[in-house]
Design goal:
This protein is mainly beta and 120 residues long. It contains no helices and eleven strands. The strands form two sheets. Strands 2, 4, 5, 6, 9, 10 and 11 form a seven-stranded mixed β-sheet that branches. Strands 1-3-8-7 form a four-stranded antiparallel β-sheet, with no helix packed on it. The protein is elongated, with a radius of gyration of 14 Å. The chain starts with a strand and ends with a strand.
């Protein structure tokens, strides 16, 4: 059974940094792309960052220049380095992954979410 396991959320002061990690567990034929989305209370889920297996990246406008996504294809993991955090970055952060299954279909999986709170 394929699952995404997230870690690294928590409470940080404005201007601080956090690093989120996401690992794909279970048997797969590979991962095409991984990404991070976030959802704040009362708001829609929004893109934070995505990265393909080839290393192409894209970021939401509000995090460009502050957040960096990276991946390790050999380990099927992705990380999100978040710097210069602002209170408006407070949200539940969700990892997702486009995974090639053992039957060679491609499915989208989501993690359970990890809370990031930026507050003094």
């Amino acid at each position: 059974q394929v699952q995404l396991v997230e870690s690294g959320g928590g409470l940080v002061q404005p201007g601080g940094s956090l690093r989120l990690s996401c690992a794909v567990s279970g048997k797969t034929s590979g991962v095409n792309a991984m990404g991070w989305y976030r959802q704040a209370p009362g708001k829609q889920r929004e893109l934070v960052a995505v990265i393909t297996s080839g290393g192409s990246t894209d970021y939401g406008d509000s995090v460009k220049g502050r957040f960096t996504i990276s991946n390790d294809n050999a380990k099927n993991t992705a990380s999100l380095q978040m710097n210069s955090l602002k209170p408006e970055d407070t949200a539940v952060y969700y990892c997702n992954a486009h995974i090639r299954t053992v039957t060679m279909t491609t499915l989208l999986y989501w993690g359970q979410g990890t809370q990031v709170t930026v507050s003094s």
